[in-house]
Design brief:
Blueprint: H1 2-7, H2 67-87, H3 92-110, H4 115-126, H5 133-150, H6 169-188, H7 192-195
Length: about 200
Amino acid sequence: MREQIKNCPQCRRTRFRSPRLAPRAPKGIPKSFPSEPGYTCTMNSNRNVKLIPVLRRPRSQWQIPDLKATELLVEQQKNEARAKAFAHGTTPYGREIFRRLLDLAWRRVDEKKSALEAIQEVQEELAKFPELHSEFVLMLSRTVQEDREALGLSSTPEDDPRELEGTSPWGWATVMVLRARLAQKLNDQGAGSASGIGRTRC
């Protein structure tokens, strides 16, 4: 065996003082190596291993992170967290209907309709979805809270719909219409973007 190891082209650097110190071959690999030319040693071969080269970037290509990009990323993460908190406890279907109700109130106010007509129309739409009233109360409460925070006013704790749960769909429609009128008035005064009161919330 000592002579066979010497004849192996890939194992020529290995020297053993005696055959007893030679390592045992794993299962599936022959214990002896033929000495004929062209034989490839498989004693230390690694099968199914794909090596990925690591390319070092030159120092000239190093870049300092853009502070504006970092700030935008932080702001995006805050918006995503805020949207996730707003949607907690609601369904996509309920959020879409609520968004359309806010948009309806906005459009009726923008069309210069009277408050009574706008409230009546929004209330009729609210009555079509009795199974979503609990979600409407929750989202409307959160919307009012966010508007108050945007205006620097006191607000109730988040996810606390007690302020609106005792009212009727007529009261919810009234809040939606009055909110739209306040937002459009601030927009006309040039403070709409600064106030943070948007057309919809979801």
